[in-house]
UniProtKB/TrEMBL annotation:
Name under which the protein is recorded: SelT/SelW/SelH family protein
Keywords, in A-Z order: Redox-active center
Highest taxon of the lineage: Bacteria
Record NCBIfam families: CXXU_selWTH (TIGR02174)
Length: 93
């Protein structure tokens, strides 16, 4: 079975739109590799965490920031499709 990405976000912080945009980007980039992307409103204030099948990939509080989309795509790629090229997103900044 293909993996599922979960974006756990704080609804009190109004992070739904950011999460939905990131979900769209992931679904577009990994259309063949993912089962889906789940948007999960958190009970914990200030939370933004990205999971792959229950394994944490990124935590905003631990990092002290949000991931940019390039970083998030690279993290997801490394977890679900290590051989996949991300084109311009793989080039150094």
């Amino acid at each position: 079975m293909k993996p599922t990405i979960t974006l756990e976000y704080c609804p009190k912080c109004n992070w739904l739109l950011r999460s939905a945009w990131m979900a769209q980007e992931l679904l577009t980039t990994f259309a063949d590799e993912l089962h889906g992307v789940l948007l999960h409103p958190s009970d914990t204030s200030g939370r933004f965490t990205v999971w792959v099948d229950g394994r944490e990939l990124f935590d905003r509080k631990a990092a002290g920031r949000f991931p940019d989309i390039k970083e998030l795509k690279q993290l997801v790629r490394d977890a679900v499709a290590p051989g996949k090229s991300l084109g311009h997103s793989d080039r150094p900044a």
